[in-house]
Structures are given as C-alpha cells and as structure tokens.
Amino acid sequence: MGDTKIVYIEKFGIATFKINWYITASACKITVNAHSHTIITAHKVRE
Predict the structure, then answer these.
(1) What are phi and psi of 36, to 5 degrees?
(2) Of 7, 21, 41, 44, which has fewest CB within 10 angstroms of its CB?
(3) How far, rounded to the nearest angstrom, does the alpha carbon of residue 4 sit from its chain's CA centroid?
(4) Nearest to residue 33, comparing CAs of 18, 20, 22?
(5) What region, left, alpha or beta, does residue 26 occupy, with left being phi > 0 and alpha being psi -120 to 50 degrees?
(6) Each residue of 19-42: pLDDT tens digit?
(7) Residues in Cβ contact with 21 at an 8 Å cutoff, skipping those fewer than 6 apart
C-alpha cells in the first residue's frame, strides 16, 4: 500500500433508491449496485 492517496472532495453526496447507490462527488456521478458493490455507470457532470 505504498502509494495510497487520499483525496478530499468539497461536494460529496450519497443517495439510495431501491437497489442502487447514487454517488455525486465534485464533477462526477456514479451509480453502484448496493448488493454486489459493482459500478453500473460513471459520468462527468456538466456545470
């Protein structure tokens, strides 16, 4: 674990709806399956 980096993000949020987690962090939006912890989609957020 030599090159582990921690990134602090100003805007961060997690919402749950049915079986998915919806995560927004700075300029990206990620959808994760809550059961298998698999990333379903990841998108850049346009500002």
Answers:
(1) -100, -5
(2) 7
(3) 18
(4) 20
(5) left
(6) 888 888 878 889 999 889 899 999
(7) 14, 15, 31, 32, 33, 34
